[in-house]
Design goal:
By secondary structure, this protein is an alpha+beta fold. It has a domain of 79 residues: Dna Ligase, domain 1 (2-Layer Sandwich). It is 31% helix and 21% strand. The protein contains ten helices and eleven strands. The protein is globular. It starts with a helix and ends with a helix. 29% of the residues are buried. Pfam families: ATPgrasp_TupA (PF14305).
C-alpha cells in the first residue's frame, strides 16, 4: 500500500517520461534508454510513450473493443453483455441475474464479482464504481491509450471454471502478430500463481512476478483454436498480450493489453526480458525514437 501511494505521488510530480525513467531505474537498477531500448519491458514503455496510434484507445476500452473483436474473430467469442452505463445510477440491479461481473471500461483492476445477488453489497459497490468513474487511468499510471477512453461501467455474465478458485486466464504474448507463449494465471484472489507454456502446452522454465504453480493445468482441447484466435487479433501489432477464458470448452475473449505490468514486470530469470525484447523490432525511422 505504501509503495502504491508513493508511486501515485511520483506520477503527480513528474512528466510521463520522467515517471517511467525513475520507476524503471528503481525496478531494474539500470537506466531506461528510450533511444535504444533492449528489453521487452523497455520496449513496452517505448510503445506507450512513442507509439500513440488512435487504435490503441479503442482496443484498451473494454466496451469499444467488443466491436473490433466481433469483426475480427466473431461475436460468438464475446461474453454476454447485460448493460453499459455512464453513471452508477443507471444500473438497475433488480433486472440483473443472480450472478454477474461489473467492470470499468477505462482502466485495469476495476472489477466487482457478484456470485449471489442476495448477498451482494450494492451500496458499497456503488461507492466503488463512482470512484472508478472519477479515475483517469492515464493520469494515474501513465498509460496514454487510456487518456481518451470514456469512463463507463459494463456488466457481463459471470464465468467460472470448475474446481478453480477463480477464472483461469490464458494470456498469449504475441510478437509481430505471432503468439510465442501462453501465460496462465490461476487463483488470482487467493494465492495467485503464474506459469508459462509453449504453444504445444509444454511448461516453460521461467516466471513473471508471481510464484509458479506446482501442478500443471490441463491442456485445453481447443488450444489450437484459441491460439489461432490470438494470432488473428495480434496482426499488425509489434507486441500485444491477447487474453482469453476457456469455460467448458467455450472460448471467451478477455482483453488486449499493450502495456502489461505497466512496463515493470520482472522476469525470473531476468535474461528472459532481454531475449523477449529482441523479438520486438521498433520502427527505426520513427521520429519519436530518434528524438530521445
Amino acid at each position: 500500500m505504501v509503495k502504491r501511494y508513493a508511486l501515485r505521488i511520483l506520477r503527480k510530480l513528474t512528466s510521463d517520461e520522467q515517471y517511467y525513467q525513475i520507476r524503471y531505474y528503481f525496478t531494474f537498477k539500470r537506466r531506461l534508454n528510450l533511444k535504444a531500448p533492449d528489453t521487452l519491458m523497455a520496449k513496452i514503455i517505448w510503445q506507450n510513450l512513442c507509439d500513440r496510434a488512435p487504435i490503441y484507445t479503442q482496443l484498451v476500452d473494454k466496451y469499444a473493443v467488443r466491436d473490433y473483436v466481433g469483426k475480427k474473430i466473431g461475436a460468438q467469442y464475446l461474453n454476454t453483455l447485460y448493460g453499459v452505463y455512464e453513471q452508477v445510477e443507471d444500473i438497475d440491479f433488480n433486472i440483473l441475474p443472480k450472478s454477474f461481473v461489473l467492470k470499468g471500461t477505462h482502466g485495469a483492476d476495476m472489477i466487482l464479482i457478484c456470485t449471489d445477488k442476495s448477498q451482494f453489497d450494492i451500496s458499497n459497490a456503488k461507492k466503488t464504481m463512482r470512484k472508478w468513474l472519477s479515475t483517469n487511468f492515464y493520469k494515474l499510471w501513465g498509460e496514454h491509450a487510456y487518456d481518451k477512453v470514456p469512463p463507463r461501467i459494463i456488466c457481463e455474465q459471470y464465468l467460472a471454471n470448475a474446481h478453480e478458485s477463480a477464472l483461469v486466464d490464458f494470456k498469449y504474448h504475441c510478437f509481430h502478430g505471432e503468439p510465442k507463449h501462453i501465460q496462465i494465471d490461476r487463483d488470482r484472489f487467493v494465492n495467485h500463481t503464474l506459469n508459462f507454456y509453449d504453444l504445444e502446452w509444454n511448461r516453460l522454465p521461467f516466471g513473471l512476478w508471481y510464484p509458479q504453480a506446482k501442478e500443471d493445468l490441463y491442456k485445453p482441447k481447443n488450444l489450437e483454436t484459441m491460439t489461432q484466435l490470438a494470432r488473428t487479433l495480434a496482426q499488425g501489432f509489434k507486441f500485444v498480450r491477447v487474453d482469453f477464458y476457456n469455460v467448458e470448452g467455450h472460448i471467451y475473449f478477455g482483453e488486449m493489453t499493450f502495456y502489461p505490468c505497466n512496463g515493470f514486470g520482472v522476469f525470473d530469470p531476468v535474461e528472459k526480458d532481454f531475449e523477449f525484447g529482441s523479438w520486438v523490432q521498433l520502427d527505426k525511422d520513427n521520429p519519436k525514437l530518434q528524438a530521445h
